[in-house]
Amino acid sequence: MRAAMFWSALGVGLQLVATPVARAEELKPRAIGSRVTSVALFKNGLAFVTREAELPSANGRLRLEGLPVPVHGTFWAWSPGRPDAVRRLVASLEPIKTVGRAQSLEEVLLANTDRDVEVLLSDGKLIKGRAVTPADPPSDDLMDPARIMPGRTPMLFATPGGTVVFDPSSIQRITVSGAAPRTDFDRRVPKARLELDASGGPGGKLDLVSS
Fold first, then answer.
1. Which pLDDT score, from 0 to 100, does residue 134 have?
2. Cα–Cα distance list, 204 to 6, 50, 72, 78, 79 (Å)
């Protein structure tokens, strides 16, 4: 009798311990993929892009990452024939680190922050020194959703006489001492991320339109 009571109490205890863990796993978003099914492009440059994703058969929280940022900041999401399939939808921005060829003199300068360089500015001034690596951009949690296209950040340049601050658009020419300058540049590009709660069901699909 005592043994039966012990095993019964142990079972209840294990159930109480396991329930929060199971709940946490249920709330943890699961990444799903998507594919582009159609693109409607208008002559003014506006485009509507439709993507499709498979919904799981069970209820759960899902996540779609690496989506292009909509120009108008708008997403429409639904499941055809199942109006209650999407119960919650939250969009956010996250910076994605990419490496590519420098696309401006500013990026060439930032790709060679460990090299001595000469910079000719639009007003004719020539400064010598090293570019200062900017502070890390804000994380996805600190990025302002309303500021998709960030403004130009002033360039900091360390010289023997002090730090010079100037508009990077004023750079006319860069001369790098020694070997050829590096042209590969690390940049952080904002991408959209969607998180949603979905009701499970057989053969469920998610249609997502952005503009």
1. 80
2. 45, 16, 28, 10, 7
Max CA pair span of the chain: 96
Q: What is the pTM of this model?
A: 0.53
Contact 148, 120 (CB under 8 A): no
Q: Is the distance from CB of 120 to CB of 106 less than 8 angstroms? A: no
Say if CB 117 and CB 175 are below 8 A apart: yes
CA angle 90, 95, 96 (to 5 degrees): 115
The CA radius of gyration of the chain, in Å to the nearest whole number, is 26
H/E stretch holding 105 reads: helix 105-110
Whether the CB-CB separation of 94 and 190 falls below 8 Å is answered with: yes
Q: Which residue, 192, 188, 189, is CA-closest to 63?
A: 192
Per-residue pLDDT tens over the stretch 169-206 = 899 999 998 888 999 988 887 888 889 898 877 767 88
180/100 Cα distance (integer angstroms): 17
Residue type, 134: P
- For the sheet with 86-101, list strands across it: 30-31, 60-67, 184-198, 86-101
CA distances, 210 to each of 119, 142, 149, 155 (Å): 42, 23, 17, 35
What is the phi/psi pair of residue 172, to 5°?
Answer: -105, -35
Q: Decide if 176 contacts 117 (C-beta within 8 A).
A: yes
Give the sheet arrangement for strand 35-41, strand by strand. 35-41, 47-54, 205-210, 75-78
